[in-house]
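pinging the channel bc i need a second pair of eyes. not urgent but kinda urgent?? the chain im working w is below, pasted from the shared doc
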Amino acid sequence: MLDGVIYWIVVVPVRAPVPIAFIAACVPEKEGSLIGDKSVSVVFDNSKIKRFVPGFCATTSFAEGIRKSLAWFDADPSRKKIDPEMNARLDKLIAGYEKGMIEAVRNFR
């Protein structure tokens, strides 16, 4: 993944790399949650916590964390509810980005 790019996952898994600046411009209320760790890279490392808490040791593997996360969603059906309005906004966002990309490429040929 490139720095400053988020891959949105939609109902049918589709990787859609959309720059954070574009998302923030189109959906400004999401800007705060996009800036920071998510905008820099997809490498989640715990070196910062280890600097501040020298004895820290992660005890949950990625695979176990995913299993626990999925179990949490499965425990309450309301947690699996799809937000049709947000889905439509994300579809519109991706379509707008793709349209802009096509237009930009056309302008450079």
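so Residues 1-5, 7-11 have pLDDT under 50 and may be disordered. and The radius of gyration is 18 Å. — does that match what u expected or am i reading it wrong
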